[in-house]
Structure formats: C-alpha cells, structure tokens
Amino acid sequence: MADSASKSNAVNGWKLVWSDEFDRDGLPDSSKWIYEVGFVRNKEEQYYTEARLENARVEKGMLVIEGRREKFPNPGFKAGSDKWSENREFAEYTAASITTQGKFAVKYGRIEIRAKLPHGTGIWPAIWMLGTNITKIAWPRCGEIDIMEYVGFEPNSVHATVHYSSGGKHAQKGSKIITEKPYDDFHVYAVEWDSEKMDFYFDDKFYHTYKLDDAVEGGYNPFRDPHYLLINLAVGGSWGGKVDPSIFPQKYLIDYVRIYQKA
C-alpha cells in the first residue's frame, strides 16, 4: 500500500516532505511528536496523559491512541473551583493527544492520514491543524483546519471543518460525508491546501472545499501561514456529548501520517 500511495502522489506532482510510518514500537517518536496534557478543552471527560503507553503507543506498525475508563488523579484539582478543568479530583477517562507543535509545521500541501476510528456514544477522535501563532494571537484568529472529526452519536458521518475569526467572532464552515460504518475499516483522511482553497477527502472522495479568502480579517489570513498537526481521542465534551461507559477501552489506530508539497 505504501508503495502504491507514494507512486500515486508522485504522479500527481506531490513530493513527500514529512511522514511517520509508525514502524518502531514503543512511545511515539519524540523527535516528531509532543503531548497535550490534562483537561485541555471543550469540557471533555478525558485526561490527556503524557508518555504513557496505556494511552499512546506504537505497536505492529500502528500508532494506537487508547481511550480508557479508569480513575486518574487530576494534579490541577482545586476544591471549590468553578473551572471545569479544576473541579474534579479524578478523571474518569484517560486518552492521548499528540501534536507536532514546535517540531514540524507546514503551509500548503497534501496532509494525508490513514486511520481506523474508534466508535461508540461519547467518542470524538480528530485529525486537525492549528496555526503556529496560536500562542501570540489565540484561537480562532490563528485558524483551525479539521481534516477529520467523528462523533459516536453520528456513527455514519465524517466531518471536515475550517474555523477562523470573522468580525472578531468565531466563524466556521464545514461539511460531512455520509458513509456506513466508517469505523469498520481503515480509511484515508486528507486535505489538499494551496494559496486559494482547501479540498477535503475521504479516501478518494472529495466532499468539502473552502476558499481561503473567506478568512481574511483586518488584512490577515491565518490559512496563508504555517499550521501544525494534532491527532487526539476526546471523550464526551461539548460535541462528543453523553458518554456510554460500557464501550471502553476504545482504540484509535493510525497507520501513517504523510505530508506532501508540490514537487
């Protein structure tokens, strides 16, 4: 599969500039990935752990991100706090979010990931990108490119969405493709991004496009600046919704990540 995919993209004028084939067992390659840690966003139920094999490991040529139902201490716990990330002494679920922040970023290209999704009510895996200037200008001004999002309560849909700032407020444009039981097998999730637009694919099926000019605000466009990659498994939260505790553990399998640019 790797050979045919590489040949196909070579024919289409793409050159491989970064990849992880997940061919070395153990923790994810620390030269390529870092971890988000803790209760990070969206009032999600999972605690993201760091360098913990139970939640993120490479085995049998795959990256495994595993969501687990387990009691896990929250170091940020503050009794009586009103903040969702602080008012729980223990998490009920653990998972992982790995990112290339500070390791690798790209502006334009084809970002392609072959993965097999977990499933069940409350599951929310994603493959996405954020502008590298997020620490300076914050979200959503930095831009967000959601190559793939899947929520367990919509078992036959896969989503692609672009987030940005418009008029000083969060704006988004997205679409979804209806496909029966996408979690039953591996699929290729991809975006082809250039200076004018982004095109999103499920396998070889094109299903969403976004014109970059829609994101111009005050003369700035976040999608003409570099973005880094994130792969995570969320549980519950603002979109994941109610969680079925009986479905765990759940494994999110990533066969490869390949980033191409025009040759």
Write the layout of secondary structure elements.
Elements: H1 2-11, E1 14-20, E2 34-35, E3 46-48, E4 56-59, E5 62-73, E6 90-95, E7 97-99, E8 109-116, E9 123-131, H2 134-137, E10 144-149, E11 157-166, E12 169-178, E13 187-193, E14 197-202, E15 205-211, E16 227-235, H3 237-240, E17 250-262
Parallel strand pairs: 3-6
Antiparallel strand pairs: 1-17, 2-7, 4-5, 5-6, 5-17, 7-16, 8-13, 8-17, 9-10, 9-16, 10-11, 11-12, 13-14, 14-15
Structural write-up:
- The chain is mainly beta.
- The protein has a single domain (2-262), classed as Jelly Rolls (Sandwich), CATH 2.60.120.200.
- It has helices spanning 2-11, 134-137, 237-240; strands at 14-20, 34-35, 46-48, 56-59, 62-73, 90-95, 97-99, 109-116, 123-131, 144-149, 157-166, 169-178, 187-193, 197-202, 205-211, 227-235, 250-262.
- Strands 1, 3, 4, 5, 6, 8, 13, 14, 15 and 17 form a ten-stranded mixed beta sheet that branches. Strands 2-7-16-9-10-11-12 form a seven-stranded antiparallel beta sheet.
- Strand 14 (197-202) and strand 15 (205-211) form a beta hairpin.
Rg over alpha carbons:
18 Å
Please identify the top-level CATH class: Mainly Beta
Uncertain regions spanning at least 5 consecutive residues:
none
What is the CATH T-level topology? Jelly Rolls
CATH architecture: Sandwich
- What form results from the Cα inertia axes? globular
- Order of SSEs: HEEEEEEEEEHEEEEEEEHE
State the end-to-end CA separation.
21 Å
User: What percentage of the residues does DSSP assign to strands (E)?
Assistant: over 45%
Derived structural class: mainly beta
Count of DSSP E strands?
17
